[in-house]
## 1
Amino acid sequence: MNARADRPNVFPWPPVILAAALVLGVALTILYPLPWPAGMARDILQGVGILLAMVATALYATALRELWRAGTAILPHHKARHLVTSGPFKLSRNPIYLGNVVLLSAFGLILGSLWMFIVAAIAAFAEQKLGIEREEAHLEQRFGNAWRVYKKKVRRWI
């Protein structure tokens, strides 16, 4: 059987990338702080950051609920049993990975850390290459035309 049809990855890259990005971003913020742009209202930005963290949490919760309801894999290195196109998957093919980037950006606002935004961009690229592209090849192998139709209708990120 084709390796991509069996499962997208042998290692769960996306959650590891998120954890590494959080640790790296916080470490860089502590060790080598970048100055926050002058004139930015810190309290307002922290409030926006908290709201973004809640948005990320809602994305995670609704996406995981849809995967669970469909009876398909939640872990990114397991075989997909069903193509999920409902809930947040109507708006983004990758709402969990979108949530990861939103969460990293939220921490950037909460901590007043420009490093978190840099790390979020790097993490998004790594998730794209090590997670999304492999998962999409897996989904195409597993679900064929149904995947291609869905892929044309729904954007990868937002």
## 2
Amino acid sequence: MENLLDMTISEMRALLKKREITAVELASFYLKRIERYDNDVMAYLNVTEDKAHEMARIADRKMEQGEDGPLLGIPFGIKDIFCTKGIETTCASQILKGFMPPYDATVIKKLKDASFVHLGKLNMDEFAMGSSTENSSFHITKNPWDLTRIPGGSSGGPAAAVAAGLCAAALGTDTGGSIRQPAGLCGVVGMKPTYGRVSRYGLIAFASSLDQVGPLTRNVSDCAIVMNEIAGFDSMDSTSIPQPVPNYTENLGKDIAGLRIGIPKEYYIDGMDSHVKKAMEESLSIFEKQGAILIDISLPHTEYAVATYCVIGTAEASSNLARYDGVKYGLRTEGKDIADMYKKTRLKGFGKEVKRRIILGTFVLSSGYYDAYYRKAGKVRTLIRRDFDEAFKSCDILITPVSPTTAFRIGEKTEDPLTMYLSDMFTIPSSLAGLPALSLPCGFDDNSLPIGLQIIGRPLDEALMMQAAYVFESVKNIEKIPGAFRKEYLL
């Protein structure tokens, strides 16, 4: 049998369909890998082994009865930010330890309807607040390419699990880069769809005007397959867009001759890692050789994006996290009265970074400061969106780096929050504008650490982004699994 680690979801489905492997055997393959390797990577918070075997047996019965489907029997890891009925959901926070949701998030329900296999819940920065997964209340996830380095964040667990071959695909969330940045640093594909393209119902909120759900996969075709299953209107989400969803796999393999690619000068800056700069130059040359047209453009308000994001994101976090008070669910620390109980519960339950953002958010929303900060940030956000609107008059997609550097060492930036926030400087602007954006591997630095390339598209034009990404991926053919994690388990 070919190495399962090198297979796409479609290739795994072909084996399952021909009964050359069963869903139970496929789930066991990944569970054995988790048992062997996750003590090193620490991507999982909770491995749902019994649930995985149960779901795999159901998938096998469905296939015996002639049922088919693109995700039938495919093992997934799920970021621990989605409500999963009867499975602990913590957001990597002590304040939600032991919380068992009574319902499934819409995207989880869709994956269940597609008969996926749930391997477990994956680690993250607490309440998705961070760029390194060092802010988890439980443990730090490590980058499979170098276990002394961070995997990115906040979807560091999903990115590391996919990179190490501890699941076939994963589901994450992206607020300011939380899918794309870890995907770039771990050498996998990650996509943030257009805001409203995928339902947020059952997603535990960080910043509601920014949060978006998306896949992390080994390659572009797998990303398209997962998007086909999770995208679409949901009446349970008031921000969901009532637009038809295209078949994202249809244009994969079509050429990109004549495609107009915008190169924003604000993303190619002094101080960028020389290896990142070189990889981007080589990548743009590949697109040009495939018939694309490169156009220099400007997004002049980019320099204000990180500050704008910090104001909007912390304000919305302050509002959303007010619900965690020890009254209805999660951690409760008794006090002399209800105010004291609130204080003690939040003091014990929230980590340092979450407290920092709640304090900042409460400040910018407070009387006398709302107009000076939050209202002004909203106006700058509009200007950033208009920059993109203007750029797309002459371009079809934009291409930028995902991150100015490759993965940094664990502990290197924990005492410097501002430097940590700047890790997302290339991903934040498209989040503020609500645009779709995709990260895919484009090379390595001298330490064999992955470098990510970002493709930004027009609203609801995820298909064109994936078409371009697929062409690049087919030419570049980047290694996806680190050598130390390539060991195969016999079934």
## 3
Amino acid sequence: MDPKLLLVFGTVVRAGSLGAAARQLGRTQPAISQQVRALERLARQPLVVRGARGIVPTEAGRLLLAHADAVAARLRAADAELAALADARSGVVRLATFPTAGATIVARALAVMAREHPGVEVRLSDAEPPEAFDMLAAGTVDAAVVFRYDDQPDEIAPPLVEHPLRRDDTLLILPGDHPLATRRLLRLADAAGERWVCGCVRCRDHLLRSCARAGFVPDIRHSTDDYMIVQSLVATGFAVAFLPRAALEVVTLPGIEVRRVEGAGHRRIGLVHHTDAAAIPALRTLRSVLEAVSAPVPDPDPDPVELDLERTPGC
């Protein structure tokens, strides 16, 4: 059955006459009459009769009228839902993020989204950058918050596009009673004889490259992706470490000192998605919110790094 004929039939019955239906639909009365007759041929029986007060549906007509009303209602609902998506009032965005960003900028962004865009649902997946890129390629997420260090090649190429969110300084974490903690200006070579703890593969590679430029090979004694463990090992004097600044914005354990160090570099955090996904209204909304909340928490005194922040983990 032709749904267009069904919708015209519903308008005819609700309007009460062919002429009134023609005016509502912007067509001629003969055209409307032909469409009603075409629907009756498909139904193989009369659907309307002329009564004293105009068009009256037969039993078959009343049955079809219920379906015509249901089709019209579903079309109105579809139109409203599409309009909501187009205006970014609703929708679902599947987002991958590495833990540090998830605990900082993504968490802040979700709070804003819930308050200002409650119809947009963001579904999070925890993934380090290599895994996040695989998820983008497989289509299991719409976008990913990723990072790369400044001495690492850019891996974003079409069909992917990246929107920068923030620059995250790499900081040297020392035990509170370490001799280097008394100095304000440090070079990476000053830590050449230290035992180190490092995290994910990217962070380890960055440490190795940075130390190579400073003229030494770091003595890596411990490896963990959990920044709480990293800070605990440093606080108890077992090692020193590089940590990205975002990791200390969420959790800073007592017993450690944080220093900027020449040669430590930084990492860049960005939102990555396929070029075609830029047209998705809900994703555009999430991107604008992420950009708005991504500014790092400022240091009250730039050297040494003083962090009066709440205390979390993650890589």
## 4
Amino acid sequence: MAEHRPFTRSRTDRWFAGVLGGIAQRFGWNATLLRIVYVVVSIASVAFPGILVYLILWLLMPEEGS
């Protein structure tokens, strides 16, 4: 059975708040690639939804180790 890791913001892999770094750690993805995809999708959707989703995740996701 796979190890269950909760969604947490990364303390070590962050550019801003650690949201995308935490998601990448959770799923074993490349954080830089995830950031690039997230920015491209956000720009393609006129940026507002991407920024709003990021802010909501920042508020809801606890920081790693807390």
